[in-house]
Amino acid sequence: MLRIHFSAGDLERTQIAERVDPLWEMVFSRLRLTEGDSGVLLEPWLRDVRRNGDRQVIRSGVRLLAVLSPLGPYFPDFLTPPEGADGLTPALEAIRGTPRARLREEFRLLAGVSPTPSWTRPLAEGCDGALAELTEALARYHAAVIEPYSALIDEAVETDRLHRNGTGSVEGLLHGMWPLMNWRPPVLEVQYAHNRELHLNGRGLRLVPSYFCRRTPVAFADPGLPPTLVYPVHHDWTWHRQLASGRRELGALSALLGSTRSAVLAAVGAGATTTELAERLGASPSAVSRHTTVLREAGLLTTERQGLSVLHQRTVLGSALLGRN
């Protein structure tokens, strides 16, 4: 359990980040690429990366991030600098400018929980050439794994931010984080891999929504850094938003397919199971299944079994009909 202690002024200084943090997304995407089950919602992204991504760049980036950000109780904070709030270029510049004393200390802590190969020694010593090579590798990985999907990622993060800020107050925002977190004033309790106490001491808390984070929020290991908590976005809100906007754009398509089938096609988003479509549309799974069968036979959807579920995705023709090429 991570217990975040609020004191005077902390609520007023707490906010949700306004944009995607590219370094955190890279760290979490590596986990999604290597785990056995990335979840049905990320399956379309995973399949496309594996089919169309630069395999050499992706393999190299995955190996690099697996060493520098392993699963477990610790990975170095220098890899996800606060400057990521301003975009990829400032974040990479911050990594290149990491003080040598900090690098030595963070690699010492890393070596205590995970193997550190010999190639990490120049990084731990702060060699300019090694830091430049690291940031170049990260930029290539970002271009292969994150950048091609930036529109989808940005929409999901923005939707989550708008939805949570709609509560009208910071306390409402924190209460709305359940079940990821439990707001028990003046302490925010977060499900965590190990027990930690974080005192904000008037600095406030920066909440960072992440597209590729799953299950458990993550905070900086160093309590002296700006208090930050990265949490997984609520993906269903993105589908609801797409569906709401789609209903305003589906007049002509409804005349062709019918309003219900047009809504099903719009609600598929980047991919959805029959159960998810039923929940989004407020319909029964059997009714949704009948409509997806018709859409599939018309060449507007594809259907693929994923374990006990089936994943529906729009075809190129289906996306073209919606004007979402």
Automatic annotation (TrEMBL):
Pfam families xrefs: HTH_20
Keywords: DNA-binding, Transcription, Transcription regulation
Domain HTH arsR-type: 251-322
Protein name (record): Helix-turn-helix protein
Organism: Lentzea atacamensis
